[in-house]
Write a structure and sequence with these properties.
There is one protein chain. This protein has 390 residues and is α/β, with parallel strands linked by helices. Strands 3, 4, 5, 8, 9, 16 and 17 form a 7-stranded mixed β-sheet that branches. A 6-stranded parallel β-sheet has the order 12-11-10-13-14-15, sandwiched between helices. Strands 1-2 form a two-stranded antiparallel ribbon. Strand 11, helix 7 and strand 12 form a beta-alpha-beta unit. The chain binds zinc ion (2 copies). The site of one zinc ion has 7 residues, from loops.
């Protein structure tokens, strides 16, 4: 089959690899009909995440049709069914899965000892996302093996197109969880840093959840325009002071809720050892990144909530703990518990409350993947979200 294969820094190739096979009774094989390139794939593209190996298949945002099931699937999935696959692989049986905390599934990362060393604790197993998160081959391919497939899927109702539902696997529930974790009240101003795909989903989610006013902060003109189209007031932090504008928009009180849809991006260590020094190095090179967290702590209204869907990989220096504590702020974080939200979100798509496909700016085939990675990374051609059809 064809797949987008990682070969090294900024070296992703479309090439032939062996078809995946059933390896465990709870596996299913999916024929991929649509997949997307995610902002967090760029950490791998630029090789800021450790644990990639030559030959790894990329991609954790994908959907398709079930073509084969292992003996242990027991009717939970049938051949021919259309499914979106959540980026977090879940066993459905461990203590955390039973509580709905799927992104910290205790069983699906088969390399969790490596993740514990690099991140302090393991996440669930993730598709196409380094050997630290299980080394599972990704979905930017014609076929993919889904482990624990009896639980790791979202069924798609008839009548909804791939583009309407594809983002149920990551960015839509990620933006949604960020908004839910902010516990939005009708009197709230919600400030969202980052107008990338997750920020865009967080804007729509905050509005659906009834925020009085949503403000989005970024510096890329077309992303700010998309944010405004979704109902946000925008701040261009290349030309305006974020703190001043936020105070203006809230009569000097500050936003009640703040969402960090930027994260550290480039700050994960390249090697397991010396993680701390590496991260410090990275921070000096990318000193604007950690400022989001600080800015949120300084500007948030006392007793407010900070919600962090943005990805952090290691240690962060110079967090104003005094302000965080004395202002009585609540900090909520986490990788997304995808399946916790998707029954509700499928319904919201089906009844027309939201069509997440608004975020797509570029479409192509797997062969176009290497070029589109570059376009996306460089934010060329107003690129916000890429969808590929194998
Ligand atoms: Zn993603
Ligand atoms: Zn589990």
């Amino acid at each position: 089959m064809k797949a987008l294969v990682w070969h090294g820094t900024q070296d992703i190739r479309c090439e032939s690899v062996p078809d995946p096979r059933i390896e465990d009774d709870r596996d299913a094989i999916i024929k991929v009909t649509s997949c997307a390139i995610c902002g967090s794939d760029l950490h791998l593209y630029d090789h800021f995440m450790p644990g990639m190996e030559k030959g790894d298949v990329m991609g954790h945002e994908f959907m398709g049709e079930v073509v084969e099931t292992g003996k242990g699937i027991n009717g939970a999935l049938r051949k021919g069914e259309r499914v979106v696959i959540p980026f977090t692989i879940i066993c459905g049986e461990c203590d955390q899965c039973k509580r709905g905390f799927f992104s910290v599934c205790e069983r699906s990362n088969r390399n969790k000892h490596l993740a514990a060393k690099a991140f302090g604790h393991t996440t669930a197993g993730l598709f196409g996302y380094t050997h630290l998160t299980g080394g599972y081959q990704g979905g930017q391919a014609e076929y993919v093996r889904v482990p624990f497939a009896d639980k790791t899927h979202i069924k798609v109702p008839d009548g909804l197109s791939d583009e309407q539902v594809l983002f149920l696997g990551d960015i839509f529930p990620t933006g949604w969880q960020a908004a839910v974790q902010a516990d939005i009240q009708p009197t709230d101003t919600v400030a969202i840093w980052g107008a990338g795909p997750v920020g865009q989903m967080a804007i729509r989610s905050a509005i659906l959840l009834g925020a009085k006013q949503v403000v989005c902060i970024d510096r890329v003109p077309e992303r700010l325009e998309m944010a405004r189209a979704g109902g946000a007031i925008t701040i261009d932090n290349a030309t305006e002071s974020t703190v001043e504008r936020l105070n203006q928009l809230t009569a000097g009180k500050g936003p009640e809720k703040c969402i960090d849809a930027v994260g550290m991006e480039a700050h994960a260590p390249r090697a397991l050892e010396h993680a701390y020094d590496r991260v410090k190095q990275a921070m000096m090179l990318e000193s604007d990144r950690a400022t989001v967290l600080r800015e949120m702590i300084y500007v948030c209204r006392p007793a407010g909530i900070l919600s962090v869907p943005g990805v952090y990989g290691g240690l962060v220096d110079k967090i104003p703990m005094g302000a965080l504590m004395n202002k009585g702020l609540t900090l909520r974080t986490g990788q997304t518990h995808v399946n916790r939200w998707t029954d509700d979100l499928v319904q919201r798509i089906a009844n027309g409350q939201i069509d997440p496909s608004f975020v797509i700016t570029h479409r192509g085939h797997l062969e176009d993947g290497p070029e589109l990675y570059k376009t996306f990374r460089d934010k060329k051609d107003n690129c916000i979200k890429v969808v590929l059809r194998p």
